[in-house]
Fold this sequence. Notes:
Elements: H1 3-23, E1 40-43, E2 46-53, E3 64-65, E4 75-82, E5 97-106, H2 115-120, E6 124-128, E7 131-133, E8 139-141, E9 159-162, E10 165-170, H3 176-179, E11 187-196, E12 202-210, E13 216-221, E14 226-228, H4 285-307
Antiparallel strand pairs: 1-2, 2-3, 2-11, 4-10, 4-12, 5-6, 5-11, 7-8, 9-10, 12-13, 13-14
Helix pairs in contact: 1-4
Amino acid sequence: MNTKRILAAVLTASVAVSTLAVSASADWNIKEGETLDPGLSIGTGNWLAQVYNTGNPDENKPAVDYGVDLSKIDGVRVVFTVDEDPDFGYTFFEGAVGGAVGISMNGGDIGLEGDLFNKYNWPSQAFWGMEYTNAEGETVNTDPNADDDTSNDNPVSLKKIGDYQYEAVATGFDNPFTDDGVNEVGCCQVFIQQWSDTLNYYTVNSLEVLDEAGNVLISFDELGKATVAGGSEEPADTEAPADTEAPADTEAPADTEAPADTEAPADTEAPAVGGSSKPSTETGAEGIAVVAGVAVLAAGAAIVAKKRK
């Protein structure tokens, strides 16, 4: 066996994984010079806004209450844009964008563990793929929902509404107030996650919380600033949370992984979520996945070299 060839193959595989790690680092863009609303959390692929929070003095999180009737919440509509990479534009964009849209409620009558917590803490509806125009000017659709095979469909499809702009609508979520007789919760938050293998970043243009009839209860702009809509009372004068950092020692339920029948990257587990509000941004899952990928690719390269002895 030629040892030099094996080592060369392993090195090549490692470089390939390094490139993959860079491409998988895409996240939500933040406008330069703009100030995010304190109730908005962005990180590790998540864009998460607070609809309601009783507050947690231990974590320096004041109460947030926009007067939204939480018992009316049924779904979420998100509009986002795939941003042009400053160096490569859309040259390497191949529509490999997946994620999930969801509503999370916990605390109060739901508690921080048990059956109700597992049901309502991090439910989400997944999407994968999209219609886009490739570098050759061809229209391509990577969404498995677009073909005749229903075995690999996802709950949500991204609807193209502009140049590299998409709409995701997820409805029909269980509501703890109407479905399980809950009278109060500690927090309610809405979010979009993205699991991507692309150099391009993304900008959330708007996120709307919907009732069962599709009416908007409250909306958030790209900075996380809220506008209360019809069906909701006017909010009381409350301070926005001053600290958007999440506790790092909490875990999210394991049922938010990307669907097994898609090509989502391996580090697609939901972020850790605390009892008061927000996901941890220090999960470390990506680093583990990359290291594992190096080992797998390196092993594969070594096997190929051995066969070519």
